[in-house]
């Protein structure tokens, strides 16, 4: 690639490159390698809008579109698409120019080429242009974009077939898949009446989610965009593939696995980055789990309860003290580091408790339930608290309604006077009397000495 000259201004150099590429559209006299080098140089200048105006004019965008979608040289076309994608990102006004030039259909057709490089670039271009066009239904049906997206996602799903067991995608394939799922999310969001056109992609999206190797921080590209894409699809119309007969829990388990890897105890300083990422990107995941629970089979619902709610074993201690997923969710729900996600966690745990306030308190303890319900705006009726400490759960055990700990596992409270002689008890009472009198004389608090009160009420016994 030729280095930019420092003897002329950036603006004049950009104009000269645009003029060369415009002339080439008529004369076709640039060798392919020279055309690619010229477009590469223009791409470098176009990363900063300052003094790069000729790129972002109608003539500049049209020139790039012609090289990208009407040229015969594939390498030049790819480089022109890179320039175009940068322009659409940096200067949003160019998106409307692209729409007016009517290059959307030609861009959509490039999805058929089964090339990760083209899928990445065309996916990004169309994603950016969705914000400037009312023609999305036309794109989906007349231009067949829905079909091409479904086909592309099917190709990505084939990477994870049983024949290719343990095979993982290349970096370029992952980048292409990310742009396709981002585009799918926008299309389904902006044209919800056409969302049924993407039903064919639901099983492949779940296959990819469940079979790919997850990174240590999974709520990043491409998993985060895959979850976003699923969130906008009509899962209720595809319950047969969402909860397959061979294993109704497999897809729910895949999402819970992402959740498990995304949440750590907020008490550990080393986990700040993980929980911060979860607080920022975890809402779609929690919302998708809620959406799935609503349409789940009984088997899938039971699986979610077992994974997300404290078990009987965990009730040997106050809830939220262990390292299980349920404990970490409770810890995070009460953490100041989870301001964005707390309300969504509350609703998930409440709905997994069959949206029953009393059952919810039984599951997580009133200490957590009160705060979670308050943050979610759910009123906890008084009837939900009555009799909780004396009414056994399904296993017949009584539990502390505040901490959720089984009463038979609570530590025995020892009598502080146990083992003392009568003389020692009398000296301890005198010591407490003196301490309370000193506190009373400070005037800081208005307090009645409990020893004095006991004397007045006749609760002290005279000793010989």
Automatic annotation (TrEMBL):
Cellular compartments per GO CC: cytoplasm
Protein name from the UniProt record: Uncharacterized protein
Keyword Chaperone appears in the UniProt entry: yes
Annotated PANTHER family: SYNEMBRYN
Similarity-based family: Belongs to the synembryn family.
Source domain of life: Eukaryota
Annotated GO MF terms: G-protein alpha-subunit binding; guanyl-nucleotide exchange factor activity
A Gene Ontology biological process term: G protein-coupled receptor signaling pathway
Alphabetized Pfam families for the sequence: Ric8
């Amino acid at each position: 690639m030729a280095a930019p000259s420092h003897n002329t201004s950036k603006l004049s150099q950009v104009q000269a490159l645009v003029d060369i590429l415009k002339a080439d559209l008529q004369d076709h006299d640039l060798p392919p390698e020279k055309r690619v080098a010229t477009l590469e140089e223009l791409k470098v200048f176009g990363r900063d809008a300052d003094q790069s105006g000729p790129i972002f004019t109608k003539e500049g965008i049209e020139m790039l579109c012609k090289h990208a979608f009407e040229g015969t040289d594939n390498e030049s076309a790819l480089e022109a698409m890179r320039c175009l994608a940068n322009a659409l990102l940096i200067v949003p006004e160019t998106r409307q120019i692209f729409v007016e030039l009517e290059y959307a259909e030609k861009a959509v057709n490039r999805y058929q080429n089964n090339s990760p490089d083209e899928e990445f670039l065309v996916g990004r271009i169309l994603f950016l242009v969705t914000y400037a066009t009312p023609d999305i239904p036309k794109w989906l049906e007349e231009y067949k974009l829905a079909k091409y997206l479904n086909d592309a996602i099917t190709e990505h799903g084939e990477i994870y077939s049983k024949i290719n067991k343990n095979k993982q995608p290349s970096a370029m394939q992952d980048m292409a898949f990310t742009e396709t799922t981002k585009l799918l999310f926008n299309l389904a969001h902006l044209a919800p009446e056409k969302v049924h056109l993407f039903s064919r992609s639901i099983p492949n999206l779940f296959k990819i989610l469940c079979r790919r190797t997850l990174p240590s921080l999974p709520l990043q590209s491409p998993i985060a965009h895959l979850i976003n894409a699923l969130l906008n699809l009509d899962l209720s119309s595809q319950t047969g593939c969402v909860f397959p007969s061979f294993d109704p829990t497999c897809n729910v388990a895949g999402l819970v696995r992402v959740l498990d890897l995304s949440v750590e105890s907020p008490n550990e300083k080393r986990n700040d980055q993980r929980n911060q990422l979860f607080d920022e990107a975890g809402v779609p995941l929690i919302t998708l789990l809620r959406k799935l629970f609503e349409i789940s089979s009984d088997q899938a619902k039971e699986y979610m309860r077992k994974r997300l709610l404290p078990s009987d074993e965990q009730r040997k201690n106050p809830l939220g003290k262990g390292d299980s997923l349920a404990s970490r969710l409770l810890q995070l729900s009460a953490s100041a580091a989870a301001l964005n996600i707390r309300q969504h966690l509350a609703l998930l745990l409440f709905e997994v408790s069959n949206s029953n306030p009393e059952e919810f308190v039984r599951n997580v303890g009133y200490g957590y339930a009160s705060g979670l319900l308050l943050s979610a705006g759910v009123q906890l009726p008084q009837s939900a608290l009555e009799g909780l400490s004396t009414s056994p759960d399904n296993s017949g055990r009584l539990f502390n309604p505040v901490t959720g700990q089984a009463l038979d596992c609570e530590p025995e409270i020892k009598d502080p006077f146990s083992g003392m002689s009568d003389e020692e008890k009398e000296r301890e009472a005198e010591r407490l009397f003196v301490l309370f009198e000193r506190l009373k004389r400070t005037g800081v608090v208005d307090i009645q000495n409990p020893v004095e009160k006991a004397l007045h009420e006749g609760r002290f016994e005279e000793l010989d």
